[in-house]
Amino acid sequence: MNQLIRLLIIALAFVSCQKKSSKSDYIEQRVEEILSKMSLQEKVGQTSLRGTSSRVKGDLSEDLKNAVRNGEIGVFLNVMNPKYVDELQRIAIEESPNGIPLIFARDIIHGYKTIFPIPLGMAASWNAEVAETSARVSAIEAAESGIRWTFSPMLDIARDARWGRIAESPGEDPYLASVLATAFIKGYQGDSLNSENSMIACAKHFLAYGAAEGGRDYNTTIVNEELLRNVYLPPFKAAFDAGAQTVMSSFNDINGVPASGNKFILKKILRDEYNFDGFVVSDWNSVTEMIPHGYAKDDKHAAERAITAGLDMEMTSTSYEDYLLALMDEGKVTEEQLNDFVRNILRVKLRMGLFENPYREKVDASKWYAQSHLEAAKEAAIKSTVLLKNNKTLPLNKNQRIALIGPLADAPVDQLGTWTFDGDGNYSLTPKQAFAENKSKFVFAEGLKYSRDKSSAGFKKAIAAAEKSDVIVFIGGEEAILSGEAHSRADISLPGAQEQLIDALHKTGKPLVLVIMAGRPIALGNIMDKVDAIVMAWHPGTMAGPALYDILNGKAQPEGRLPVTWPKQGAQCPIYYNHPNTGRPASADSFVGINDIPVGAWQSSLGNNSHYLDLGFEPHFPFGYGLNYGEIEYEKTIVSSNKLRRNETIQVSCTLHNKGNYPITETVQLYIQDVVGDIVRPVKELKGFKKIRIAKGESVSAEFTISTKDLEYVDSSMNYVVEDGDFNVWIAPNSADGIKASFELIE
Ligand code: NOJ
């Protein structure tokens, strides 16, 4: 009863304050009001995020309930029994000293029940709408389980296909990643943070986690400040501008200082420069992992370093819980520091409306796997698919007899990809099911049982199926477990005996389509010439089958473009299109390959430029690459003026002709190059893109506006500058093509 009255008073106060002042004034007032009543113990409790995967087994323990009752826990991770969610929240609201609600969190990375393509696949859609919808659907489905905070989106720029977490990344480009960041935040958080199906988002991992040396997960990162600011920070800035409420510090050290104890990133950049007013959570145990890093001598020291750096909430390890008060007694940290953490956390809880409406959304009918969600997932899978090669083999035609082969043609769980704890493979539609559903003329022979299978026992049947057919569709790649956290690979070619099987199938002489489901670009050197078409599907999610069926049969057009450079081998990594130039840039004219060096050649410098003797300098496919069914031609890039005055704009345009037999949705890309800078500038930088629909036989003009802001970067003094001088510009189908134009920036 008391509780009811309290809620009523809060609600009335809320309404009257809404009238009198802005909501944020009201929230700040409430924050101070609650803070003033809290004991020190309770304040520390708010900074504690309890992961239950290790702590709650079986029933809720009395210890855990008591911890909530005493206000010792602020947030729970992975409480997946809805009855526990309700009970823990009830205890927090009704029995804890100040009735502060809990938040229930979970890693919902690319869908909760309905699984969308992996984030790298979503990035390949180059489509903000598709990304936003996927996040909205995730939030709607997760709300039923009481989950109001997701540890997504991951915004780590990734330039190394060996790194397992490239699968979760938005790719290698800061501009594309920023567009996606905005879309994901909007989708998760919805129109209003206090809606029951809004999930607060977490921009992670702060910072430069994707720069892990050698692509080995958790590895050290050495990234100079210009690079941090020009490449790694922009997607985070975009997420904060879009209203992201939380941010997660990463596992790695950056130039020697672990992110969870890094004052420079957590205070100077995040709070002083970006004015971020949400809260920072550590990654799983990343506070106490500063001990093995060699940055803290014990848990207490780790807590001190994280507190001093401004980290608000500790995930799973308990150094704050165990030592924060002692550190305060010793004068190593202050109550005001703790108060600030609690303010940041309470502010977000208030914005989420949890004080007024703390309980799980009550739904009449479950929205999990709703038809509209499945359709959105299919659409996303279609839009993410990238056609990499096509010798007129695709689309298939209805009369062809198909041999459907490969370990991922009927792998309902693996097609979901990494980080899909809650997606149920029983709801997946596989390519095999989709071919059957559509009454295609096909025979199925998996050939290999799973992607790492080395046995050739199934080859005979697969070859026999191929011989009886007109075309082979081989669906292979990587099982879901081969990418994601801690799943880096040095050799990124097709695992197991897939290359051998492809070789055997190629020998049948039948046209061969390779469909790849994987969490990263796959090295294709050994098989590239043995296949007639290559389709990159990433791990497409629940609706992989129907999406691929439509693409392969021309019912949908491939529109995806690579969000990362596709290397020839893992050994070429890191590789990315927007690299700075050397003084001796690689060039086809002077390249000398390993086989062209005469035996006994005199010691010369072999072309004098930046390349590998054996792999050359080009990737297999450039960033932004992807084919359409049909043919598109770009005319030259035209600038409206070859002089751009500061604070004015110029138009850049290009005419595109659809010369093929299909309507095309083209992803038209705008790149610039700042020719001479205060620091060496990238050879190209993406500055815009547009999806343009072009009917068969039609020509359209693609236009972009360039303003001085587009030319800005952070120089060696850490200032945002736009420098007078020459710029090159391309409107192009990908980062390696297009016809260059130029202009000069003048005062
Ligand atoms: C560790 C991962 O690095 C992070 O991305 C994830 O959100 C947390 N674990 C919680 O599961």
Total strands: the figure is 27
CATH H-level superfamily of the domain at 371-552: Glycoside hydrolase family 3 C-terminal domain
Structural class: alpha/beta
Gyration radius, rounded: 27 Å
How would you sum up this structure, described in words?
The chain is of the alpha/beta class and 747 residues long. The protein is built from 21 helices and 27 strands. Among the domains are: 46-105; 371-552, Glycoside hydrolase family 3 C-terminal domain (Rossmann fold); 632-746, Immunoglobulins (Immunoglobulin-like, Sandwich), CATH 2.60.40.10. It has a six-stranded mixed sheet, with helices on both faces. It has a five-stranded parallel sheet with strand order 4-3-2-1-10. Strands 19-27-26-21-22 form a five-stranded mixed sheet. Helix 2 (23-37) packs across helix 16 and helix 8 packs antiparallel against helix 17 (371-384). It is globular. The N and C termini lie far apart (70 Å). Residues 12-21 have low confidence and may be disordered. The structure holds 1-deoxynojirimycin. 1-deoxynojirimycin (NOJ) is lined by residues 107, 151, 204, 283-284, 485.
What features would you highlight for this structure?
17% strand, globular, Immunoglobulin-like, binds 1-deoxynojirimycin, 747 residues
Summarize the entry for a quick read:
With 747 residues, this protein is α/β, with parallel strands linked by helices.
What topology emerges from the helices and strands here?
Layout: H1 2-20, H2 23-37, H3 40-46, E1 48-51, H4 52-55, H5 62-69, E2 75-77, H6 82-95, E3 103-106, H7 119-124, H8 128-143, E4 149-150, H9 174-189, E5 202-206, H10 225-232, H11 234-241, E6 246-249, E7 253-254, E8 257-258, H12 263-273, E9 279-281, H13 290-293, H14 299-309, E10 314-315, H15 319-329, H16 335-351, H17 371-384, E11 386-390, E12 402-405, H18 431-437, E13 442-445, H19 459-467, E14 471-477, H20 498-506, E15 512-517, E16 533-536, H21 544-552, E17 632-634, E18 638-639, E19 643-645, E20 649-658, E21 664-674, E22 685-694, E23 699-707, E24 713-714, E25 720-721, E26 725-732, E27 741-746
Parallel strand pairs: 1-2, 1-10, 2-3, 3-4, 5-6, 6-9, 12-13, 12-14, 14-15, 15-16, 19-27
Antiparallel strand pairs: 7-8, 11-16, 17-20, 18-20, 20-23, 21-22, 21-26, 24-25, 26-27
Helix pairs in contact: 2-16, 3-15, 3-16, 8-9, 8-17, 9-11, 14-15, 17-21, 18-21
This protein binds 1-deoxynojirimycin.
The site of 1-deoxynojirimycin has 6 residues, from loops.
